[in-house]
């Protein structure tokens, strides 16, 4: 039994009548996530906007430093302890006013991890002359930049049910 095939026309299909076009759902425009800024998102004096971070950074900077270093390894802070190894090293170096050495190194590492512009000289000057503000800034920066890593699924704005 032989069937006769109709040739497929070349070109786009004919347009639908006007009444069918209004019933079609339009695909929402996809939103591409914007890359993070290459600058610090929290300024050197931004810790004043969060009282707890500000107080801890000024009174017990070693605890804030240890928390930031733990957050960089584990954004959920499941393994966080206030008196951790990073805190103790920072505290011991602070006794000899040498905490700026380790803080400069970890600040540079944070800049590399988050692709923040800057220099070793700038890091050194910041932590030497404003160590408490630098610790607070680093903690807030880690909070800001790592918060998306622990929240799980978030529906994007383009995914809405039709009304």
From TrEMBL:
Entry keyword annotation includes Transmembrane helix: yes
Keyword Transmembrane helix: yes
Keyword set, alphabetical order: Membrane, Transmembrane, Transmembrane helix
Transmembrane segments: 82-102
The organism's place on the tree of life at top rank: Eukaryota
PANTHER family: DUF614 FAMILY PROTEIN-RELATED (PTHR15907)
UniProt-recorded name of the protein: PLAC8 family-domain-containing protein
């Amino acid at each position: 039994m032989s069937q006769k095939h109709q040739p497929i026309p070349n070109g786009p299909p004919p347009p639908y009548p006007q009444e069918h076009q209004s019933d079609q759902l339009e695909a929402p425009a996809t939103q591409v996530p914007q890359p993070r800024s290459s600058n610090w998102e929290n300024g050197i004096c931004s810790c004043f906007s969060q009282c707890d971070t500000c107080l801890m950074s000024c009174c017990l900077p070693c605890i804030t430093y240890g928390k930031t270093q733990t957050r960089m390894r584990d954004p959920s802070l499941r393994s966080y302890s206030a008196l951790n190894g990073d805190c103790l090293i920072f505290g011991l170096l602070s006794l000899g006013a040498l905490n700026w050495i380790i803080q400069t190194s970890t600040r540079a590492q944070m800049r590399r991890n988050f692709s923040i512009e800057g220099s070793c000289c700038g890091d050194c000057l910041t932590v030497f002359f404003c160590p408490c503000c630098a610790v607070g800034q680093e903690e807030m920066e880690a909070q800001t930049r790592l918060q998306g890593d622990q929240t799980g699924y978030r529906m994007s704005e383009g995914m809405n049910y039709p009304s």
